[in-house]
Amino acid sequence: MKRQLVLENGDVFIGDGFGSDRDIIGEVVFTTGMTGYQETLSDPSYCGQIVTFTYPLIGNYGINRDDFETIRPFVNGMIVKEACEAPSNWRSLYSINDFLIENDIPGISGIDTRRLTRIIRNYGTLKGAICSAEADPKQVAEKLRETELPRNQVEIVSTKRPYQSPGRGKRVVVVDFGMKHGILRELNSRNCDSIVVPYDTSAEEILRLKPDGVLLTNGPGDPQNVPEAIEMLRDLIGKTPIFGICLGHQLLALACGAKTEKLKFGHRGSNHPVKDLKTGKVYMTSQNHGYAVSIESIRNTELEVTHVALNDGTVEGLRHRVHPAFAVQYHPEASPGPEDANPLFNQFIELMEKTAQRGNLNA
User: Fold this and answer.
1) Domain annotation covers residue 353
2) Among 35, 115, 148, 203, which is least packed by CB within 10 angstroms?
3) Same domain, 336 and 209
C-alpha cells in the first residue's frame, strides 16, 4: 500500500504504508535513539506529533507488555526507513505493525529518513501529513499551511481523576501533565506514597493532601499553554519541596518569572550530553522537548542554572536560590536509555527529608 508524507514546505516522500490506513496530520519531529521505540510511541509527550526514527531499522525486537510508558499512546504517526515484519525477542508479543493497527496509528516506511531529518534541521519543525499516494501533494501542503494544530495537548493526556499508588515512605503529589509510567516506577522503588492529580489541580487542593513534596511531570506542547499550572506553582513555591521534569521544569521557570522559547527542531533521543555546572561532570541523558527555558530570562529571577546542554548551550537544569525547588529538562526516569541521571530521585527524597528536619513549611 503506497502512501505519501507531505510537508508544509512542499517536500514529498513516497513510501509504504503500515499500521492504520487513515490520513493524519501532525508536527513532524525526529528522535535519535537506537532503541526504545516502544517507550517513544507510548510517551504522552509526543501527543499530536508524527515521529521520525533516525535509526534505520525499527521494530526488530517487537512489542512487549512491560515497556509501555502509558496505557494509551497519543502519538499521531510513525516514520521509519524500515519496519521489521518478523521481530525476534523472547519478550515480544506482536510486531510494530500490529501495535499501530491496534491503536489506529498510521505509519510510513521505505523513505529516506536521513534526508527528512536534514530538512527538519534546516527548516525547523514542520507540519506534515501521512496520506494516500493519490492525494494532490500541493493541495495537502496548502491545507497544512492553513491548519492550526491543537494547543490543549496537556488537557488531552493528563489524568482526569486523582489516584494513589500507595507506599509507606514520603508522600509525593505527582502533577500529571502527561506522565510517563517510568516516573511512578522510580517513586514506587523508593517506597513513596504517590498521589497522581490532574494538571489543573490548584495549590490549595495539593496542600490539602499534606505532601512531603510535589513532582511536576513531563508533558507535551508549549508550557505557556498551561496557565493553570503556572498559577498553581506560584502559590505552591516555598510551601513544599518541588521537583520538575521536562515540561515541569519549564512550568517552574515560568512561575518564577523566566521565559520559554521554541527550539528550532527540539531535543529528542537518548544520547544528549548535559553538563552539571557544580561538579563539571557530563551526563548522557534521554530527552524529548521542543521548548526550552531562555537563559537570558533567568538573570532577574530567584533561579540559578545548574545544568546546560553541551550540544547547543540551552538550559537543562534549574535550582531555586531561596526555596526547596529544582528541576531538569531531561528525563532521569528514562528506560531504556542512560541511567546517569537516575540519582536525581534520591536527591528529591533527600530534599524532602532536609525540609522536614528544618520544620514543616506548611505550618
Assistant:
1) yes
2) 148
3) yes
Residue partners of 153: CB distance under 8 A and separation at least 6: 47, 48, 74, 178, 219, 220, 221, 225
Query: 342 and 216 in one domain?
Result: yes
* Catalytically annotated residues: 246, 331, 333
**Is residue 215 included in any domain, yes or no?**
yes
250 annotated as a binding-site residue: yes
What does the pLDDT read at residue 363? 40
Q: Give the number of domains in the chain.
A: 2
Going by pLDDT thresholds of 50, 70 and 90, the confidence category of residue 334 is confident
Could you give the 3-state DSSP secondary structure of residue 291? strand
What sign has the CA pseudo-torsion 332, 235, 213, 171? negative
109 known ligand binder: no
Asked if pLDDT for residue 28 goes beyond 80, the answer is yes
Tell whether 219 and 323 lie within a shared domain.
yes
Return the beta strands (E) in 279-359 as ranges. Answer: 282-293, 303-309, 315-320, 325-328
Closest of 46, 1, 36, 45 to residue 19, by C-alpha = 1
One domain for residues 140 and 176: no
Does 247 appear as a known binding residue? yes
pLDDT for the residue 165: 97
Cα 6 from Cα 14, distance rounded (Å):
9
**291 annotated as ligand-binding:** yes
Whole-number pLDDT of residue 362: 47
C-alpha cell at 185: 516506577
Q: Residue 105: how many CB atoms within 10 A of its CB?
A: 24
Domain coverage including residue 298: 153-358
360 band by pLDDT with thresholds 50, 70 and 90: low
Q: Are residues 217 and 342 in the same domain?
A: yes
- Residue-wise pLDDT tens digits, 116-133: 999 999 999 999 999 999
